[in-house]
Write a structure and sequence with these properties.
The protein is mostly helical. The chain has 6 helices and no strands.
């Protein structure tokens, strides 16, 4: 018997990882791991509310960016496990970058 959460996945695991990696790439480009982790952790309790706001404003924001992408991010935010996932991905990327910097020195 599959659980209900597995049956309803509006974003595939591959697409989820692709979207989260895009966010981590931007954070890594500017080396904002600590502030990003801080704000993501603080916002974790209200992530669901943020996702609902994204759904609400998606048609308006669709004039500037792809509406489907906004909705995909909104689906990701509606599940708290994805917030934990992005924090883990950021930590892994930060460790990778530190190892590369240490090897260069």
């Amino acid at each position: 018997m599959t659980n209900q959460k597995e049956e309803y996945m509006p974003v595939s695991p591959e697409r989820r990882d692709q979207l989260l990696n895009k966010v981590v790439d931007v954070i890594a480009r500017y080396e904002l791991f600590t502030p990003a982790a801080f704000f993501i952790s603080i916002g974790k309790p209200v992530a669901f509310l943020g996702s609902q706001l994204m759904f609400f404003f998606a048609p308006l924001a669709g004039a500037f960016v792809n509406e489907d992408t906004i909705e995909d991010y909104a689906h990701l935010l509606s599940d708290r496990s994805n917030v934990d996932r992005i924090l883990d991905m950021m930590e892994e990327r930060e460790l990778e970058l530190r190892k590369k910097k240490n090897k260069k020195e």
